[in-house]
Amino acid sequence: MRVISSHVLDSVRGCDAAGIRVSCTRLLPSGDRELVTDIYADDAGRVAISVDTAHDLPETRYQLIFFTGEYFSKCLDEKQSAMLSPIIESVLHLDLSSTSERCHVPMMIAPHSHSVWWSREDQ
């Protein structure tokens, strides 16, 4: 088992992105996709997804979709809603073959942008 985790931060309101929806999909070398989970971040803006990689081929990848448009359309006030943009999702593709136990990818989000990095918590 490996864990994909994230801490999502709302850079518009300066807080954790509590309740943002995140989906995780296994991308198989054949082109097939398998939904692992579709969850919501906790009150601290955190998600942790356990994935069984025991039978993954070396080319297997994982896709995270952060539903940023959905999140901001629910939490911005009337004045701030003018900041909404056509960017409705932030998508990451991950190769877990180079991580041992955990792949932590924190993200800062805004309606027009996002910033993501890899935190080597497994080292």
Briefly characterize the structure.
With 123 residues, this protein is mainly beta. 7% of the residues lie in helices and 44% in strands.
Labels describing this entry:
mainly beta; Immunoglobulin-like; six-stranded mixed β-sheet; four-stranded antiparallel β-sheet; 10 strands
Characterization of the model:
The chain has 123 residues and is mainly beta. It has one domain: Transthyretin/hydroxyisourate hydrolase domain (Immunoglobulin-like, Sandwich). It is 7% helix and 44% strand. The protein contains 1 helix and 10 strands. Strands 1, 2, 5, 8, 9 and 10 form a 6-stranded mixed sheet that branches. A 4-stranded antiparallel sheet has the order 4-3-6-7. Strand 3 and strand 4 (33-40) form a beta hairpin. The radius of gyration is 15 Å and the shape is elongated.
Proportion of β residues?
35-45%
- From the spread of the alpha carbons, the general shape counts as elongated
**Mean pLDDT level:** 92
- What are the secondary-structure elements, in order, as H or E? EEEEEEHEEEE
Q: Kindly report how far apart the N and C termini lie.
A: 16 Å
Number of strands: 10
Assign the structural class, choosing from mainly alpha, mainly beta, alpha/beta, alpha+beta, or little secondary structure. mainly beta
Number of domains: 1
List the helices and strands and how they pair.
Blueprint: E1 2-10, E2 15-16, E3 21-27, E4 33-40, E5 46-51, E6 61-66, H1 68-75, E7 90-94, E8 102-104, E9 107-110, E10 113-116
Parallel strand pairs: 1-8, 1-9
Antiparallel strand pairs: 1-2, 1-5, 3-4, 3-6, 6-7, 9-10
